[in-house]
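User: Could you check the structure of this?
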Amino acid sequence: MISLKEIKSRAAELLKKNLWRLLGCVLLVSLVSMAISYIGTNIFSEVPLMQILIYLINLYVSTALGIGLYKILFKIDDEKDFSVTDLFSFLPNVKECVLVYLLQLLLIIIIIAISILLGMIFFTSDFVNIYNSYPFISRNMMANIILSIFPKILFYVLIVSGVSLVCDIFPALSMGIVAKEDEGLKKNLFSNTFSIGFKNIKNYVLLNLWFLLLIIITCIPFFIALFVGVGSESGFGVILVILITILWVICIIGLSLYFSLAIAILFNRILKNNNDNDNLIESKSDYENDINENL
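Assistant: Sure, the predicted structure tokens are below.
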């Protein structure tokens, strides 16, 4: 059994030991992506074909660096040394990076399709009523209609967010599988991603909800301090807003690193358990074969 409590404490422990090196790797990934985007939007702003090409290059590089980051996170969990070269080690692996991106694209298409279908189910009758009332509908009537369907809007957002959260395990896990560099897992990347992912959705969702709770707890004092600082007419209020904003940004970055480590540790445990179970099955099969041969 995978203990989420152990994973959370393990992530906190490893973050303390590797904070600055891990932060440097994440910043490097962001800077590379920003640099490529800047080239596309500014240097080749008047060349649409080059913009498309650079956009595709950025997607590929971001995917490769994301896999490289998982490799580093796995090494941190296994207490192995890592370097910046690990971050770029998957850039030559075109096939694997493209497969991971195609899986991400497939999940995006599925989520969009589900969102459109649910939107049609939830709001078709409301839009038909508005259409039939146009142009005689007033602003007050429109406001009343929006207020009347607000519970449905909230419920719709919660469902779509939940579907997105559940589906997010698959592209993330595919990166982890490739980063693990296990030929048996990579050979059938799509089938392994879905079979292993479906078995571990619960733990993944619980970790995400834990992270969301931490973000909410972090944001509450920030918004209170921001409200007090903005309402103050003294210079102290402005200084307070700046200091609290800086502190809040630091906290968010720290929580993001903590969450990334926790997810990587979860995937590392999942993939190790999967390999152990496979080995047990193979060993049992070999044992049975030996018995049959002796008989």
